[in-house]
Amino acid sequence: PDIEPLCLDLADWDATEAAVGAAGPFELLVNNAAVAVLQPFLEVTRAALERSLDVNLQAVLHVSQIVARQMIAQGVPGAIVNVSSQASQRALRDHAVYCSTKSALDMLSKVMAMELGPHKIRVNTVNPTVVMTDMGRINWSDPQKSAAMINRIPLGKFAEVDDVVNSILFLLSDKSAMTTGSSLMVDGGFLVS
User: Fold this and answer.
1) Single GO molecular-function term (predicted)?
2) In terms of pTM, does the model score above 0.85?
3) What whole-number distance in Å separates Cα of residue 71 and Cα of residue 64?
4) CA 67/CA 47 separation, integer angstroms
5) What is the layout of strands, in order, in the sheet containing 78-83?
6) Within 13 A of 56's CA, how many CA atoms are on the CB side?
7) Is-contact 39 48, C-beta < 8 A?
């Protein structure tokens, strides 16, 4: 009941600064916005690369800066969870840009954890497999395409939204008070297969 949504283009640096800067105070942050423009490596366009970097990496950095500065100014501990992907650690066909931005997000999160830790701000990622969101359904609704991925997941299925939400809630909670700079795989075992 206390959530006030802000609708803005996170790739717009100034609009994001104004909107997020005026909100708060913050103790918790989940960076979940992402785009997945799937193109074969040899066909990646500049527009796809720029859009993906803007949303998947730049927006996380910028929103996290704004929120972390407020947390530090308040002198309160906090937690930030960045939603990454199993694609940060495993190459996927037609995902050159997406895999790259998610790998960069994992490293950004580790640097954030190192630099924000002294301020008692924890930073972690959740790295799900395909999640059955609208975006997941668009990109993975073809049974022939999805079968190859599902066959590599020992649990034999894609993640549901609640699987990811519950992992995020754990990382935001005091139950993970000594966890920072970590990536929590929510992949049904995909990376071990």
Assistant:
1) L-xylulose reductase (NADPH) activity
2) yes
3) 10
4) 28
5) 28-31, 78-83, 121-128, 183-186
6) 25
7) yes
Of 5-14, 93-102, 158-167, least confident by mean pLDDT is 5-14
What is the per-residue pLDDT across 164-190, written as a single tens digit (0 to 9) for each?
Answer: 999 999 999 999 999 999 999 999 999
Radius of gyration of the chain (CA): 17
d(CA 157, CA 21): 40
Q: Could you read off the pLDDT of 24-70 as tens digits, one per residue?
A: 889 999 999 999 899 999 999 999 999 999 999 999 999 999 999 99
d(CA 99, CA 105): 10
CB 62 within 8 A of CB 9: no
Domains of the chain: 29-186 (3.40.50.720)
Distance from first CA to last CA of the chain, Å, rounded? 42
Q: Are 186 and 163 in contact (CB under 8 A)?
A: yes
